[in-house]
């Protein structure tokens, strides 16, 4: 009887494997994604937003989940359908996140909610007419800074019957954004701060015509650093965001760090005396400038380019049409506790790998190699355990952990396992070929499932890549679909 049972189990397994089918367009409705992963301060768990397509196939839904770094199935934290951007309090007892509720059948601007991790319902912290975004806890856990485009007139009581005008007056070169519609230049995002205590009122710290992004607290909580490109019409000039600061209780802003180019992804070191960021120098003006990792002294404003001689993009994005559609992520470099090392990613030949950069020697060391794209990363407060959101050509958006100083990845999630078990997918192959001028061009070839080298197949040349995008290696459904229809797909990445 035991032999018969084993035989039946093996037979069923083999039959299931043989029944794998080709991917179809409608499989996109079953895809699930992970967004905004955040590791708890003690490294015991990771909070994240799980995103899926709604039942009507008209929108996305996102709820918060928690998974233990020691293993086990993720458990659901919130019942909302537009919850995103989880952020742990410094003591790990509270989770701030964004939630957009529905009113009269329409989603409202997202607000900051607080969820106690020892049990209880989430409560709204903000109720601003134009919502809130990018919540960041103060070092003592008593306040949260965030961004909002709310204006004083939005909070004034409207007269009965008064309705806002739906007329859009376009006066700028950039007036519309892909996916979000018309750009409202009259509502730049500004820095706000609010006490976590119940019934607290938010305080606006910055005003004016220029938008601010990437708020980050100083080590002692006395100031908030942020990024801003303070040009009225930046479309007519090269991007040039700088680091600014504002007292956390209010006051004058001041510029503290500047380079001849844009700055993104702020990260203060543990001492609070230095800031790391991603950026590039765009003087002289050129079509493309390679992104580098910089360190600046907040006292003097002096700047060092740590990767000036490193001929690869730091935080080089691997493009694709299957990134997380919702959920929120902020991929800034982070520091080791002693301030010696910085951790980020580097893009090369359609891959994005996790690296460590020595701030003294500028040595760049790949910690997690592989044919994959690290799409987000988050660490515990000791910077010893890291959770990575990794995609490959046949797997999208799953969480893995790695201990700094040790080799090997540990998988935490497999959110698409049921769908992947049905599909017959193929891995792309990297090739090199000579261009017209003799230079080598790197490309990826996607062959159909059950490819027969003795047969001829039609080929589609999908021209992407080049210095403007590291396209090609993250799972992209259209390439798999083309291959499933019998085409060989070639996409260069020069």
Secondary-structure blueprint of this entry?
Blueprint: H1 2-18, E1 32-39, E2 45-53, E3 60-68, E4 75-76, E5 83-88, E6 94-99, E7 102-103, E8 106-107, E9 111-116, E10 123-124, E11 133-137, E12 143-148, E13 176-177, E14 181-182, E15 190-195, E16 203-204, E17 213-217, E18 223-228, E19 242-247, E20 254-257, E21 263-268, E22 274-279, E23 292-297, E24 303-305, E25 313-314, E26 334-335, E27 341-348, E28 351-358, E29 364-368, E30 373-379, E31 385-392, E32 395-403, E33 410-411, H2 417-420, E34 429-434, E35 440-446, E36 459-461, H3 477-484, E37 488-492
Parallel strand pairs: 36-37
Antiparallel strand pairs: 1-2, 2-3, 3-4, 5-6, 6-9, 7-8, 9-10, 11-12, 12-15, 13-14, 15-16, 17-18, 18-19, 19-20, 21-22, 22-23, 23-24, 25-27, 26-27, 27-28, 28-29, 30-31, 31-32, 32-33, 34-35, 35-37
């Amino acid at each position: 009887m035991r032999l018969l049972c084993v035989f039946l189990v093996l037979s069923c397994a083999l039959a299931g494997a043989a029944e794998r089918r080709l991917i179809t367009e409608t499989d996109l409705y079953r895809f699930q994604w992970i967004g905004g992963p955040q590791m708890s301060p003690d490294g015991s768990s990771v909070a994240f937003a799980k995103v899926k397509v709604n039942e009507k196939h008209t929108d996305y839904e996102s709820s918060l989940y928690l998974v233990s770094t020691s293993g086990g199935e993720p458990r659901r934290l919130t019942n909302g359908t537009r919850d995103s951007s989880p952020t742990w309090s410094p003591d790990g007892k509270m989770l701030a996140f964004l939630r957009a509720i529905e009113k009269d059948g329409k989603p409202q601007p997202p607000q900051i909610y607080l969820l106690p991790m020892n049990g209880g319902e989430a409560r709204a912290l903000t109720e601003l007419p134009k919502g809130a975004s990018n919540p960041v806890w103060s070092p003592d856990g008593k306040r949260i800074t965030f961004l909002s485009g709310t204006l004083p007139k939005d909070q004034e009581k409207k007269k009965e019957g008064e309705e806002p005008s739906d007329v859009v007056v376009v006066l700028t070169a950039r007036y519309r954004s892909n996916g979000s519609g018309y750009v409202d230049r009259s509502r730049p995002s500004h820095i706000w701060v609010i006490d976590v205590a119940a019934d607290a009122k938010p305080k606006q710290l910055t005003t004016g015509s220029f938008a601010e992004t990437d708020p980050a607290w100083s080590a002692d909580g006395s100031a908030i650093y942020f990024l801003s490109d303070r040009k009225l019409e930046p479309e007519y000039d090269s991007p040039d965001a700088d680091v600014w600061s504002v007292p956390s209780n209010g006051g004058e802003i001041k510029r503290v760090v500047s380079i001849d180019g844009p700055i993104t992804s702020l990260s203060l070191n543990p001492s609070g005396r230095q800031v790391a960021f991603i950026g590039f120098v765009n003087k002289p003006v050129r079509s493309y400038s390679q992104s580098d990792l910089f360190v600046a002294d907040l006292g003097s404003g002096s700047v060092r380019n740590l990767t000036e001689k490193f001929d690869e993009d730091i935080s080089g994005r691997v493009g694709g049409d299957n990134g997380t559609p919702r959920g929120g992520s902020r991929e800034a470099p982070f520091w080791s506790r002693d301030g010696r090392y910085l951790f980020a990613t580097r893009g090369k030949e359609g891959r994005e790998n996790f690296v460590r950069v020595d701030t003294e020697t500028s040595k760049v060391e790949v910690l997690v190699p592989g044919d994959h794209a690290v799409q987000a990363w988050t660490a515990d407060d000791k910077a010893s355990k890291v959770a990575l959101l990794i995609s490959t050509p046949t797997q999208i958006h799953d969480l893995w952990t790695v201990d700094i100083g040790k080799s090997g990845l540990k998988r935490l999630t497999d959110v698409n396992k049921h769908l992947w078990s049905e599909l017959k997918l193929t891995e792309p192959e990297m090739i090199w070929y000579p261009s017209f001028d003799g230079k080598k061009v790197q490309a990826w070839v996607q062959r159909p499932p059950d490819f027969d080298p003795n047969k001829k197949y039609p080929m589609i040349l999908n021209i992407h890549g080049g210095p403007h995008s590291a396209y090609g290696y993250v799972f992209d459904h259209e390439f798999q679909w083309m291959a499933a229809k019998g085409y060989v797909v070639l996409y260069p990445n020069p």
